[in-house]
Amino acid sequence: MEKKILIALLMVLTLLVPSATQAAIFHQIPFEFESLPDGDLTDYDYADEANSGNVPLGFSVTIGGATYDAFDMDSNGYVQLLTGAQVPNEYGYGYVSDLIAFDPSATYLLAAYDDLSSEYYNYFGYLLEPNRAIFYYDTETYYDEDSEYLNNFEIILNDTGEVQWNFNNADYNDYDYDLFSGLYFGNTGTLHELYRDIIPVEESWVYDEAHTHGDEQSEPVVPEPATMALLGSGLLGFVGLRKKRS
User: Could you list the residue range(s) of the whole structural domain that residue 177 is in?
Assistant: First the structure.
């Protein structure tokens, strides 16, 4: 009997390990949100299946053991970090596992990654500042397209390597994939999950591999050497591609 109880306790502790790992990687902070009208953004779009192309950040940032100086923002809730004139993969919508399988070497910042659409209501876009970039979404899920069920959230990337997620509002009836929020580092093949299958409301979270928040210390990612860095200039402007569905 005692042996069975011990086995049961070990199973429970095993199930709790992923949550402990998440707590060390992401730290919740008091809710913050920078509301950005479309006119305050550096660039924005009202679209479904659109991405910015390669855009220079205006600064270099080292995160997950690799250094980036450009990005591609996608309407579906992810930002691919790039180096120089690197061509983004422009994968679009799906499960986070499918996005990673399409290009396992890519690095992503993700917030409610799914099939999202800003074609009928509101917008998505980015604000570039000297030491940070804000990736802003006020969008519907494609499932709710043209219903005015809006979801408002943002990812802030700082030149220190800190990433902040601010989830302001969620109003969705349904969605198609997994609404994944977190990080994926292609140079190490490491996926960090913050949320899945939910968009939180009035919550802020921080990933910072170099600094202490509260009483806990973020666990640094131990990287493998990055592969080839491509050099060159970036391209500006959102490019749209309408999805095809039966």
Answer: 2-240
